[in-house]
């Protein structure tokens, strides 16, 4: 970081000081509208391994017609449009903070069916930090990222921050031919994430979009013999490289890394659809194959996901936009195509809440192992 400030305070429950590193330059922000969401690093809190839990997908009890979420009456002011044939829906005229449980159940099903649902015109200041967490928690337990920056006093918020005062990310991008990096959020967890909620609070003048790929459509595009082969295989998803990179860069690892072996083809509990559950970010090898076989097959699948523009959607951000997606049926990537060194145009700042969901279940009873 170009500027790092260390704040020290005492935990109420412990005499151990809580050290917070500000992951931004205070001089650049002045009267920033969303200052309470700026990124910090808690360098004390150590978390135990995640424990198994019972999960019940809210989409299972939803009205499939979604009459509560998407009323047909034009007078309601609610509009919904498909962004592409296979993935993505945009909704206007609804405030997430005002949805009732029936509407949230139908939203969970819509996200599973469409992969990602984008809401425009949301009022972040109105709902507040705690209400945002309560809303997300309706869909599943909130995940705490093992290495990332967060919001002060709220570890559940994973902070998205790339600007002129974040040299680490700028250097990371500068060492690659492309800034894209498709992944499914922390897919190495034993019970992987379901719905993720992302709000960008500051966006560049142009660029900084996010793209999603439909893992359901990706699976369906494969030839029947390849689909049959993949349905009997598991792949290793590992969090060890992420932890190793964090330690290399001097960042705190609050939960020790794990790896899981998940079915390559998983079945969504609410829709019954099959999806391709591998991603270039965390999937390392296919169990039971020789190294060359695993590498060749994974590279085929990764290329298929990243280059499948006819089953992808690219969303441009504006203030008041919230995107919710289902990690079980999508992969996504930020697109860092803007001038990160320009203080007026180069800040991309957002907050992410990720919910944990079911243990992946595959075809013919194939289950995850670890």
Automatic annotation (TrEMBL):
GO terms for molecular function: 2-oxoglutarate-dependent dioxygenase activity; metal ion binding. This is Alpha-ketoglutarate catabolism dioxygenase. It comes from Ophiostoma piceae (strain UAMH 11346) (Sap stain fungus). Keywords: Dioxygenase, Iron, Metal-binding, Oxidoreductase. The keyword Transcription regulation does not apply. Pfam families: TauD. InterPro entries: AtsK-like (IPR051323), TauD-like_sf (IPR042098), TauD/TfdA-like (IPR003819). One of its GO terms (cellular component) is cytoplasm. It comes from the Eukaryota. Residues 81-352 form the TauD/TfdA-like domain. Its cofactor is Fe(2+). Belongs to the TfdA dioxygenase family.
């Amino acid at each position: 970081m170009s500027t790092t400030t260390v704040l020290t305070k005492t935990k109420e429950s412990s005499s151990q000081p809580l050290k917070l590193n500000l992951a931004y330059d205070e001089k650049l922000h002045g009267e920033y509208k969303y200052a309470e969401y700026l990124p910090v690093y808690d360098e004390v809190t150590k978390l135990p391994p995640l424990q198994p839990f019972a999960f019940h997908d809210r989409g299972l009890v939803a009205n499939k017609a979604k009459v509560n979420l998407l009323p047909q009456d034009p007078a309601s002011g609610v509009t919904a449009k498909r962004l592409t044939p296979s993935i993505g829906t945009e909704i206007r005229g609804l405030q997430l903070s005002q949805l009732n449980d029936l509407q949230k159940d139908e939203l969970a099903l819509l996200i599973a069916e469409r992969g990602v649902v984008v809401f425009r015109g949301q009022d972040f200041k109105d709902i507040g930090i705690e209400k945002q967490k309560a809303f997300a928690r309706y869909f599943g337990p909130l995940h705490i990222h093992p290495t990332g920056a967060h919001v002060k006093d709220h570890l559940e918020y994973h902070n998205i921050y790339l600007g002129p005062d974040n040299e680490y990310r700028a250097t990371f991008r500068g060492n690659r031919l492309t800034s894209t990096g498709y992944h499914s959020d922390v897919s190495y967890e034993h019970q992987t994430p379901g719905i993720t909620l992302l709000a960008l609070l500051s966006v560049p003048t142009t660029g900084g979009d996010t793209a999603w790929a439909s893992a359901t459509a990706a699976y369906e595009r494969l030839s029947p013999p390849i689909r049959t082969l993949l349905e009997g295989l598991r792949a290793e998803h590992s969090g060890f490289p992420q932890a190793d990179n964090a330690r290399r860069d001097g960042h705190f690892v609050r939960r020790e890394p794990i790896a899981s072996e998940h079915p390559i083809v998983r079945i969504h509990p609410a829709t019954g659809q099959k999806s391709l559950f591998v991603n270039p970010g965390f999937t390392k090898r296919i169990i039971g194959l020789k190294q060359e076989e695993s590498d060749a097959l994974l590279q085929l699948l990764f290329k298929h996901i990243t280059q499948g523009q006819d089953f992808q959607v690219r969303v441009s951000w504006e203030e008041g936009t919230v995107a919710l997606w289902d990690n079980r049926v999508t992969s996504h990537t930020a697109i860092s195509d803007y001038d990160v060194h320009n203080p007026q145009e180069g800040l991309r700042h957002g907050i992410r809440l990720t919910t944990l969901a079911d243990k992946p279940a595959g075809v013919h009873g194939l289950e995850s192992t670890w």
